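ok posting inputs for the magnesium ion job
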Amino acid sequence: MAIISTFCKKGGVGKTTFIGYLGHYYATLGKKVLILSADDQNSIFKIFGAEDKIFEQNDDYFEFLIAGHVELGDVLIEVRDNLYLIKTLNTDKLSMKLTLERAQEKVIKRIFKEYAEYFDYILIDFPPSSSRLTEILLDLSDAVLIVVGLDSLGLNGFFNSIQYFIDNDLDLESIKYIIPNGYSKNRRAPKTSLEKLKEQSHDFTPNAIVLPPLQDKSIIKNIQAEGISAFDVVELPPYDRVNKELLEKDLKELFNQIKL
Ligand SMILES: Nc1ncnc2c1ncn2[C@@H]1O[C@H](COP(=O)(O)OP(=O)(O)OP(=O)(O)O)[C@@H](O)[C@H]1O
Ligand SMILES: [Mg+2]
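and the output
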């Protein structure tokens, strides 16, 4: 079992998209996958067209599990074969509680240990903001994947993420992969940003592998608007079908380079 997180202290760079597709890919390979939304926007549900599940019930948030009000199975929301999500209600409040009651940290560790018996992968989707919960969950992660937007703000996000690790005494060596996102062959800025990112990664995270960049693809936005994941088998108009097949192929190539 591996605990894998996507993190970046910059919003909208593709963390949720990446971890959602990675999780779905592993699930299609027959692995049992759990994705915990540590982001109270719970946008991971959108990747799978399951937003209605966020509000369907109001007693199945991660917080209820930590508080001991519900059982491990009660908070799992199945969105695809082998793929389950957990939603979060209010990470700020939860973090406050964690800061006040250090014993809660042990509860979270125990919960993960128990889930580890059922799942091959536990993935965590983080918001760009951070809290005590962020620290605890990053510390629990076997591998952290930093998703970086390929523009100057994106590079700042990478730098701030490294700074965050250092400030909070988190192990920089747990950063195993860096995923540049938003690459475009026809634009110069992403190319320059990619070169800079490689240099910065060489300096700050020498043990991390910078993966080939994920292209800026409009098909990603199109299928997400329809609640279709990259690995769903669905009927699409010809143009979208071709683009979705290309996306699937690119993602598989990328994911197969991740050894965890
Ligand atoms: N490679 C890509 N090409 C085109 N659009 C993309 C790509 N990756 C992500 N997107 C789009 O960018 C937007 C932000 O993506 P996503 O929600 O995954 O980012 P995030 O880092 O999780 O954001 P937040 O910080 O709000 O959690 C979404 O609309 C998504 O569809
Ligand atoms: Mg997100």
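notes: Residues 11-17, 39, 43, 127-128, 181-182, 214, 216-217, 220-221, 224 surround adenosine-5'-triphosphate (ligand 1) (CB under 6 Å). Residues 43 and 105 are 25 Å apart (CA to CA).
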